[in-house]
Amino acid sequence: MLLTAMTACEKKEGSAPVAQVTEVTAQTTTETTQAMRPPVLLYRTNDDGTAAVQGYDMLSENVEKPRYQSVLRIPDEIDGLKVTAIDAEGFADADYFGIVEFPERIFEMGDGCFRNSALSGLTLHETLPMTYGNEAFAGCEKLEHVWLTDSVMTFGNDAFTGCTGLADFHYQEGTLIAGNNFCAGLTGMWNLILDCDATLGNGAFSGCTSLTHIDLSGGTVTLGDDCFTGCTGTETLLFTEAELHFGSGCFAGCSADSLTISDCTGEIGDNCFTDCKEMHYVLIQEGITKIGAGAFSGCESVDSFIIPATVTEIGEGAFAGCGDALLMAPAGSYAAKYAEEHGLEYSEL
């Protein structure tokens, strides 16, 4: 009979510990040797004496392949070691589970840890920080819903790209830090609610053509360049009680009918809403201090812009190509003077 155990090899100075396979051979009959053994969950030992799961042993002879289970439970401990990480590509291409339950004290998941797997739903509500590598869940075509809450989570680039079945993404409370192209090109996604502190990389949701509802509220929201560019199915844009920092072109070409920025502070970046040709109404309440160059250029269907007195800087061409849109602002405000200097239709609030 062939027994396989995972141990930590001697660590060379300056190098990371790696897993070592120790083979123990016992004399037995040929029939017993060929008997299939249950699936083995592999791991390596971290420097701090915790374990990083490496997925199931799929290569050794006489090892059964994991049978399908609706819920895959990652153990809290392996051989007495606390599980705190999942290695890169640990469960990539796995087709033997639908949902994953994680240990309470897991901190890190490597690049592609669940890439192209059969994962169908993702709920994470840990109170400890967690870091995900690049393409952590990329290509999970069966993934439909993502619900994250009450944590600090950092995702690398392309974390959910290729998740063609993903329809709903909701992060409540906590902090979300997402890399470039986070959910780019997900044509089936229709609902996005980020009620948290959120930092989204360049092109994070670009090309999500079915994204009808975007609600970013309740925290500090920093959007990279072209963050929502090409979201041609968007109907509403709502920002409430948030500190806003919008990058260049982050909503360019969106099809939203209206924009409401309520009880927010911060700035609107250059070309932020350029060529939103279906937008009819823009309401910006007290708190926003800057509207960047070309911010609303090409928004040819807007009937009126409501601009507060807190705006003290408006970039060149911010309202270029907006036809006969009416700019409404308090008398004597910077926006009122800007309208007069640039020959824009103006009405006093």
Question: Can you walk me through this structure?
Answer:
By secondary structure, the chain is mainly β. The chain folds into two domains: 1-88, no CATH class; 89-348, Leucine-rich repeat, LRR (right-handed beta-alpha superhelix) (Alpha-Beta Horseshoe), CATH 3.80.10. The chain has two helices and 27 strands. The protein has helices at residues 30-33, 334-341; strands at residues 2-8, 19-25, 41-45, 51-56, 69-73, 77-78, 81-86, 97-101, 108-109, 121-124, 130-132, 145-149, 152-155, 168-178, 191-200, 213-217, 220-223, 236-240, 243-246, 258-262, 265-268, 281-284, 288-291, 304-306, 313-314, 326-329, 345-348. It has a 23-stranded mixed β-sheet that branches. The termini are far apart. Residues 1-32 have low confidence and may be disordered.
Detail the poorly predicted runs: 1-32
**What is the count of β-strands?**
27
Instruction: Give the N-terminus to C-terminus distance in angstroms.
Output: 85 Å
CATH top level class name of the largest domain: Alpha Beta
Individual helix count: 2
Rg value: 26 Å
Mean of pLDDT: 88
- Coarse structural class: mainly beta
What about the largest sheet? Answer: 23 strands, mixed
